[in-house]
Amino acid sequence: MTEQIKVKPTPIQRNSFDVAMELLQHHAKVEGLNADEIEMTFAKYYALAKYCDHARPGNLQSLLSEELLEKVVKFSR
């Protein structure tokens, strides 16, 4: 019997909170944030992540630019 066991790694699952935190960190790095802006900025990103998590795909298309929407349509064919 072999001594090594091979296990396939499971993909990392991110929830809305994780997405909002990553967006907040990126925003802070690029734009900078003061202490007063952190709470409101996080709340906006969290609300956006929750909306995207529960929205039907068709509802999200209105958020895409025409250029990106064309790329998505081409990719899905």
Question: What does the main sheet amount to?
Answer: none
Oligomer: single chain
- The tally of structural domains comes to 1
Q: Can you count the helices?
A: 4
Percent helix? 55-70%
The total count of strands amounts to: 0
Q: Rg, please? A: 18 Å
Distance between the termini: 47 Å
Strand content bin: under 5%
Q: H/E element string?
A: HHHH
> Which outline best applies?
flat
Note poorly predicted spans: none
Mean pLDDT: 85
Structural class: mainly alpha
Structure, described:
This protein is mainly alpha-helical and 77 residues long. The chain has one domain (16-76). 65% of the residues lie in helices and 0% in strands. The protein has helices at 16-30, 35-54, 57-60, 66-76. α1 crosses α2. The radius of gyration is 18 Å and the shape is flat. The N and C termini lie far apart (47 Å). The mean pLDDT is 85.
Topology, please?
Blueprint: H1 16-30, H2 35-54, H3 57-60, H4 66-76
Helix pairs in contact: 1-2
Brief summary:
65% of the residues lie in helices and 0% in strands. By secondary structure, the protein is mostly helical.
Q: Characteristics of this structure?
A:
77 residues, mainly alpha, 0% strand
